[in-house]
Design brief:
Layout (H helix, E strand, L loop, with lengths): L3 H11 L5 E6 L2 E5 H11 L4 E3 L6 E7 L3 H10 L4 E6 L12 E7 L16 E7 L7 E6 L6 E6 L1 H11 L1 E6 L5 H14 L2 E4 L12 H17 L10 E2 L7 E2 L1 H6 L15 H5 L5 H12 L5 H16 L1 H12 L4 H10 L4 H22 L5 H8 L6 H9 L20 H28 L5 E5 L3 E7 L11 E5 L3 E5 L1 H34 L1 H26 L6 E3 L4 E6 L2 H6 L7 E5 L5 E5 L6 H17 L7 E5 L3 E5 L12 H15 L5 E5 L7 H19 L2 E5 L15 E11 L2 E10 L7 H7 L4 H24 L7 H18 L7 H21 L13
Parallel strand pairs: 1-5, 7-10, 9-12, 10-11, 13-23, 18-22, 21-25, 21-26, 23-24, 24-25
Antiparallel strand pairs: 1-2, 2-4, 3-4, 5-6, 7-8, 8-9, 14-15, 15-17, 16-17, 19-20, 19-22, 26-27
Helix pairs in contact: 4-5, 9-18, 10-18, 11-13, 12-13, 12-18, 13-15, 16-17, 23-24
The structure holds adenosine-5'-triphosphate.
Amino acid sequence: MKTPMLDQYERIKASCPDALLMYRLGDFYELFYDDATLASELLGLTLTGRGKGDSRIPMCGVPFHAAEGYIGKLVDAGLRVAICEQVEDPRSVKGIVRREIVRIVTPGTAHEYLREEDGPLRIGTLELRSSRTLGAVAAMLDPLTGDCLRMEATTQELLGWFKTSGVRELIVDSQTSEQARRAIGEMATALNALVSHLPADRVTHAQDDLAQVVTTRLVEYVSYTLCTTPLHMKPATSVNDTPYLYVSAGTAHHLELLEPRRFAKRSTSLFDFLQTTHTAMGKRALRQMILYPLADGKAIEARLVVLDHVMENAVARAETAELLRGFRDLEKMCARLSSGAAGPRDILFIAQSMRRAVQIRNVWEQVATAVPLHALLADLPRDDAQDVQIEAMLVDDPPVAERALGVIREGVDPEIDRLRRIAQDSRAYMAELEARERQRTGIRSLKIAYNRVFGYYIEVTASNRALVPDDYERKQTLAGAERYVTPELRLRETEILSAEDQLRNLEEGRVRQMIEEMRRRVPEIQKTASLIGMLDAFTDLAEIALRYRFTRPVLDDSTDLEIKAGRHPVVERWLSAAYVPNDTFLSDERQLAIITGPNMGGKSTYMRQVALIVILAQIGSYVPADYARIGIVDKLFTRIGASDDVASGQSTFMVEMAETAELLTMATEKSLILLDEIGRGTATYDGLSIAEAVIEFLHDQVKARTLFATHYHELTELPQRLPRTFNLSVAASTERDALIFLHHVNEGPANRSYGIDVAKLAGVPKRVTARARMLLQEREAQARQMNREQVSFFDTPTAQEDQEARAILETLAELPLDEWTPRDALTYLFDLRERLRATRENGSEGVSAWGASRN
Ligand SMILES: Nc1ncnc2c1ncn2[C@@H]1O[C@H](COP(=O)(O)OP(=O)(O)OP(=O)(O)O)[C@@H](O)[C@H]1O
């Protein structure tokens, strides 16, 4: 026999089959059946059971007040959780209490349950244009702030956007086309995201406008998970209208834009370096700026003008910082208002912050002369009358929950004050009655107390039962005590309870009204929140620019990149020694730089520095350089530094090649590409060949500005045949056998490589480095010998060939094979063959090289 409760459980569960159902039962959320088994495993909870024998079903539970953490864990594990509450007061119903799902928490919409520091949380979806070449229309939505971004691009590009933006869940519905479904499936795998279905009854009728379709789908999904119509969704903006700098996910990772490298000892991310904002909105705005730098000259200039202004006005800046310090997270509160979770405390906090916004507006209105700043201020609130009123009505420290007493300030409502006095008087009265009864009965331990079931009662310990007077009426017997009522107590109780009831009704009514008013103001509050976020971010960027002596960049539509004395802001900050500034000059004629030099010489720092300067400039920030002129970059790709993606199950080489593939297909003439030692992860000749072919392709086809760091010295020859390439090298010197890094970037290739010196520096035993140096010398000597004996043997057949063959044989005879590893030998052999082939193809030119040193 199924109990009515289980019946209800199963009905509710059926309405939400792809979520774990947390079913509220008194002070617990209970899970049953498979949900219970799964949750108990993931959360380490004891699995119990309900019922007996065969009909016993698995069950586990979490206390309701601690549920948040558990829900967070489940969602983090990629599950959906449906929260089912009791929606009536159990005391006022006979039989089973009505229950409803009040929230579905999913990986992409769990903003109240996950830590914001772990990055943004977004949901996304897409539809494909009927013709493949037209690409796809996509939208992504931040369920906390209600920001919705639309974009039209290739699916590959969209994947990149989704990845950097933290899309954790992709939404499909019954109208999603088959193709789109496939694309979404593939993306979900790449993003490690969940694919979720919007229930059919939520799908609005088919529309022609795909942009509309994708945004509506996401808004509907948020509404579905919140179990209410959200008030805080903003109209979608389009990436295609406001061009942004595309930063591939790999790039954001390599450059440590938002998060430091795994295992980094300090916060080495750009975000951490820049972030001294005062508000949660400011932090979000800054993160957003870094994630979406601009690619439109006018928009960047507008930001720079605001920044100039903020930098110039030190007093206003300081006052703003002061006001921002106490600012509450308005965006989070709007989300709470929207989902019906807001209570009196939220209302007070919003009112206080909105008043501060008015003050901030006043601060700047007096000094603002710049048009873009005016535009920013125009939408800040001007009038705080409403909020002053709210502050006057609510007590200083109101409770979080909507249903609580003592929320309205004394003097606001005479009726509330009167009822409160009755309640208070009765408390005094009860104390007095207690004293009186103790006196009358002689029972010193007698006490008057209250509970929800019996109301007020007099409690007497069992040992004093004999002293109880006749007019006491027994209510309840406990182990060591008896509880009584008297007619007087009953009378008083009715008075008190009715006063408290009325009081609660009145206070709740007031609060509900305030919440309703605030809900109507959500768009205004959101607008304020985002402007305050921007102002906070600008104040922050201003402080940084002043503190670290940044300069204002010049942006234009050229494809130049000119930096004088550029620095890497984060490395400079943490370096104990002085940072060596470096110049950069790229243009149409100097499109691709091949950078050589010793390990640890500063190649990757140099490349990162260039990338960060470009990003900062396109954010609208000042930059760490004496001068910077930047032809606006449309897409930024980097492949720098050791990959730590090995943990994700992909080989370093595979990841590297995937990223290379991405940039080769996506980059344009306006892009900037930074590559560090690509091809290193494979056999020398594979690697070298890949590297060379990539350079050729970038030079001939893509024509993007490129910095290419490499250890293949062979590549320094490329400028001879690829006119837009040139050599750069990081300087090092060896003094008395010690290697000194100068960190200075020079024109021209590195004259030698310093592998052995670096090995020594790194503590490789002297015997090994000495031996290596000997081997190197031998090789170089052989090379010289070969060069001397070199004859162009293919010209005049037999005799020459003969001679060359003898030279080869002689070299072979001299090879220190005993000391070589098989790999050394094999590499040498490949080397030999490769060069002989090259010789045959290119005539005699290459011969000189065949025995040359391989350093
Ligand atoms: N311009 C500079 N001024 C001062 N110190 C620097 C500079 N550039 C780099 N360094 C220091 O040198 C270290 C090594 O730099 P980096 O990692 O860029 O070398 P690399 O040439 O890329 O080495 P590898 O080829 O091994 O990757 C940095 O951690 C930093 O401490």
